[in-house]
Design a protein that fits this description.
Blueprint lengths: L4 H13 L4 E6 L5 E3 L2 E2 L6 H7 L7 E6 L4 E7 L4 H7 L4 H8 L4 E4 L3 H9 L4 E4 L5 H15 L11 E4 L1 H9 L3 H24 L6 H13 L5 E2 L4 E4 L20 E6 L1 E3 L2 E2 L2 E6 L6 H20 L6 H19 L6 H6 L39 E4 L2 E4 L12 E4 L2 E5 L4 E3 L8 H8 L3
The structure holds glycine and manganese (II) ion (MN) (2 copies).
């Protein structure tokens, strides 16, 4: 059982931010069928996990705040000898009371009768609107019971508020415990990338590099990737969400790997691009160094009061100038900027929040991500240039796709690159792959 202090603190913080005479209901994820009678590996709902650290489905957390007291209730599955022999342990209510700081632990089978009783009379109900269908159905039934229950002295909350308004802001600023876990997720993921670099050679299949990555994750306590691993050789690197990972890696091509593990509920998200045979061609090296220059410039800008937008504006300028200097595009800098020529080669954003979800929650404030950064925020910085096989450029540049992605913590002084353990200069990559 995980140390509960973190989760208890999060619940206290949430209760402090809830308005008087209110209740918050948070539903666990449900199991998902993969085929007929087998399920996908269970992944807890991120909000529920953030507040409980409890990894069973069919659970509901209820927080009630009245002028008299705060009450924390967990509904969870009953102990069941047969089910546990076949499908695994269940905590049950007695253990739940012992392990978590709760006021009550109730059977999930009592949800529809007890939940209306427990929230009866509150003015405001918080929940993550639309988060799960089973949660929506349960809340509909609860509200209906309360609305029809005037005769039994039941009354429904008159205000319903999306709990994300509070929780997303809490999740955006990581505590030191969360940062420690994310550092570990980053180290495991960094080592996985190093392992893939060492294993790469012409003739190896993309899925074999994926296997090396997954081996490093799983053997270090991170059984799952935080998202589907991308291993794209040659032109496949230009498909941003390429996950087939089925092609053979060719001599003379680059390979792009975007992979990060999920460790104790938290994601890492790293991309490295390197030559399949360990040696960059002149064109690959030129594009790679341009992306690295832009990434390092962006990282240097990440600090409190800076914005992702400002860093991205710098990346766009560096890309435009660099592509002109190399002769990949032609014309005048100002005109190329006005025409946004970079968009043909850099078509995604610079980065995103990262945490329990790889694309983590938190308001960016504007579509170009101009929210001021604050200490405790964690984000990715991942510029890329993708010159596909059919790009309208000199053929020598075609089939080169490069992205370099790291995860950063905003600190009081500036930033910490959490994923720094995996190398990224041309010289370092060539030396490692040459066995030096
Ligand atoms: N791996 C997904 C992303 O980089 O955003
Ligand atoms: Mn990524
Ligand atoms: Mn990313």
């Amino acid at each position: 059982m995980k140390n509960q202090t973190f989760f208890t603190e999060r619940r206290k913080e949430l209760l402090a931010q809830m308005c008087d005479n209110s209740a918050a209901v948070i539903f666990a994820a449900s199991e998902q069928t993969r085929s007929l009678d087998t399920e996908y590996s269970f992944r807890q709902n991120s909000y529920f996990y953030y507040l409980t650290g409890f990894n069973e489905p069919e659970s509901v957390l209820l927080l009630v705040k009245t002028s008299d007291a705060n009450t924390v209730v967990l509904f969870n599955r009953d102990k069941d000898r047969v089910q546990e022999i076949w499908h695994g342990r269940r905590l049950g209510q007695t253990q739940a009371l012992k392990c978590f700081e709760l006021d009550q632990a109730l059977s999930i089978s009592e949800l529809t009768t007890k939940l209306p009783e427990l929230i009866n009379g509150v003015d405001t109900l918080y929940s993550c609107h639309g988060e799960t269908t089973h949660g929506e159905d349960a809340l509909k039934s609860v509200m209906s019971t309360l609305r029809q229950g005037m005769k039994q002295n039941l009354s429904a909350p008159s205000v319903q508020i999306d709990l994300r308004l509070i929780l997303d802001e809490m999740r955006l600023i990581k505590t030191s415990e969360e940062v420690e876990i994310m550092r570990r997720a980053s180290v495991i993921s960094a080592n996985a990338h190093t392992r893939a670099m060492l294993f790469s050679k012409p003739g190896v299949f993309e899925y074999q590099l994926e296997a090396e990555i997954m081996h490093e994750f799983a053997s270090n306590g991170a059984r799952f990737a935080a998202y589907n691993t991308i291993v794209g050789g040659g032109d496949n690197a230009c498909i941003l969400h390429y996950t087939e990972n089925e092609s053979v890696l060719k001599d003379g091509d680059l390979v792009l790997i975007d992979a990060g593990c999920e460790y104790q509920g938290y994601a890492a998200d790293i991309t490295r691009t390197f030559p399949v045979n360990g040696k960059f061609s002149p064109e690959q090296k030129a594009i790679y160094q341009l992306v690295l220059k832009a990434q390092l410039a962006a990282i240097a800008m990440i600090k409190p009061s800076a914005t992702i937008k400002a860093a991205n504006d710098t990346v766009i300028e560096i890309f435009t100038e660099g592509l002109l200097d190399l002769g990949v595009i032609s014309g005048d800098f100002e005109q190329a900027m006005t025409d946004m020529v970079y968009k043909d080669f850099y078509m995604h954003g610079l980065g995103h929040w990262i945490g329990i979800d790889v694309h983590d929650v938190g308001d960016y404030r504007t579509s170009d991500r101009s929210r001021f950064l604050e200490p405790g925020m964690t984000l990715t910085i991942e510029p890329g240039l993708y010159i596909s096989e059919d790009a309208d450029v000199d053929p020598k540049w075609r089939g080169i796709g490069v992205r370099i992605e790291d995860d950063l913590l905003v600190t009081v002084e500036g930033n910490e690159v959490l994923t720094k353990d995996v190398i990224k200069t041309v010289e370092q990559i060539e030396a490692l792959m040459a066995g030096e």
